[in-house]
Amino acid sequence: MQDLLYFFQQLINGLTIGSAYALIAIGYTMVYGIIGMINFAHGEIYMIGAYTALITITGLASLGVAWLPLVLLVALICAMLVSSSMGWAVERVAYRPVRGRHRLIPLISAIGMSIFLQNYVHLAQGSRNIGFPALIEGGFTFGPADSFQTSISYMQITIFITTLICMTALSLFISRSRTGRACRAVSQDLGMANLLGIDTNRIISATFIIGAALAAVAGLLLGMYYGSIDPLFGFIAGLKAFTAAVLGGIGSIPGAMLGGLILGVSESMTSGYLSGEYKDVVSFGLLILILLFKPTGLLGKPEVEKI
């Protein structure tokens, strides 16, 4: 019974982190699905969303605003607005001028934008860790009092519910809205979509904006979950989210969701049963193993070259 409770505890922890990875991974997979490029500045946009949420929460506290739902809602809206604006700016500055050229050029441009944003936040906010207030406390505990108990916090429940809402809203947007249908058309054939009258520049910008907004949601949630942020906060999470996108099949939104959950659970199980030092080894080893047998990822589809 104690082993079973410990297993469920690690599963809950893994699904929590995996849900946030999935939110960030969607930004990578949407951009790749539309224009076939990797936005390596996406992790820094997630980090800027977390900093924006923290600054908003601090500002509201200084004004005496203490009602938790209002604080979280305002922080979330501000983080999404700033991150979305940053995503739009990254597309206009780092991608649009070099779109259509050799793939190595946009890649270098994205890496340069990532380094620029890291150093910008480093100069503006300092290099030290900044504490993030734990606004959502408490939780549920299961199991006998005299042995190991499985616990799920209100913060973890919030992450699960928020991720589910965001994923559902995105799926409905992609499948039923006019812009969503345009996104699918551009992902299938950008040139033909342009010939048919779709404003492909607007659709590509919308893709960056949506991905950045979801990254801001993850920034707020993980900032509260971990309790601290720093200028490198986005680099590691961005790398893990990119791994999740590749694992699930980059270009596939359901694949990004599945890859994030698998990566989060594998990290948690490794930390719980082996050691936290091996979690990255197991995660990337799992990625290599899956790509050996399924190079396009779990839900990815092989690209068909048009002649």
TrEMBL record:
Keywords: Amino-acid transport, Cell inner membrane, Cell membrane, Membrane, Transmembrane, Transmembrane helix, Transport. Belongs to the binding-protein-dependent transport system permease family. LivHM subfamily. This is High-affinity branched-chain amino acid ABC transporter permease LivH. It is a multi-pass membrane protein. CDD domains: TM_PBP1_LivH_like. The gene is livH. The keyword Cell membrane applies. The lineage of its organism: Bacteria, Pseudomonadati, Pseudomonadota, Gammaproteobacteria, Pseudomonadales. It is found in: Cell inner membrane. It comes from Marinobacter xestospongiae. The chain crosses the membrane at residues 20-38, 45-64, 70-90, 102-121, 154-174, 203-226. Pfam families: BPD_transp_2.
